[in-house]
Amino acid sequence: MKEIIMFTSSTCPHCKSARAYLEERGYKYTEKNVQLDPVARQEMMSRKMMGVPAFIIGDESVVGLDRAKIDALIDYTVESCPECHHRTRVPKGKGKVKITCKKCTNEFIVHTKIM
After folding, report:
1. Taking CA atoms, which of 52, 59, 60, 89 is between 20 and 30 Å from 1?
2. For 67-105, what is each residue's pLDDT tens digit?
């Protein structure tokens, strides 16, 4: 599954919205605050990214909270168990997938779009 890196700053209100969006969707990410971390700032600038929030998803870059582009680049969805609501990452593009919940061992089926 693709790694998600989000560049932020401490005072950016859009960064707070981006953080909330990723967490709401269940996406795991690494946050790098360019205001506090000069190495992160240099990494972001070396990729010609000049604003925050900015994302690296796999090999792709996204500047700004472009939800549609972010969702399209992320190669999994997060599904909740119907019994205990534990969340599990499921690869996109696999069609019908049988999931066994790691928390309660309930088995359920999810349908992912075939790419």
Report:
1. 52
2. 999 999 999 989 999 999 999 999 988 899 999 999 999
